[in-house]
Amino acid sequence: FGITLFNDIFVKKISKIIDGEFDTIFVDTEKKSQNIRKKNPIANVERAVKENIGKSYLKFYKANDLTVDAAENFLELQFKNEVRNLGGKNILVIGVGNIGFKLCLRLIERSANVEIYRRDTKKLNQICKLINFIKPAGNQSRVKPFKFASNRLHKFDIIICCAKGTNIIRLKKINELNKDVILLDIGKGMFDQNTL
User: Fold this and answer.
1) C-beta separation of 58 from 147 below 8 A
2) What is the crossing angle of helices 121-134 and 98-109, to 10°?
């Protein structure tokens, strides 16, 4: 089972209860913040667990990185019989927060043609510049901003949704998409029921 904790006090209490009850306890090492206005907004779960777990084995990981790995591996398997694999694929990534950003960079590194969408166009353009700046120098692929108004969903081989919102993709006709498109929802219910 999993527990989401944002407070060191609760981490310590829960740690004492579960210590020794489980052979292995997996701990997300990302620092969390519940309320940035409080004096000590960041809970250091890793430290609190280390200080209070002595009997169980602790395995530390980054949940977002596992998600990025899983998405990349899934897509790689979809094209395992193609020589270029993800290279040259037209990919749309909707939502470029932590997961979307990391996944986008990996796809660019694999020479995919990536377009990204984020509601905040100022941040969208900054993220495009940043990814294009930090990608390997010899890589010719470039990430570009996507505008929904342009209605070009049919050109994509893969559409990946990483945003928090729901029902972002609403299609009037199925032919708005490439007939072989792969839809990957890493967000929370990105495709409305009619679209599915």
Assistant:
1) no
2) 40
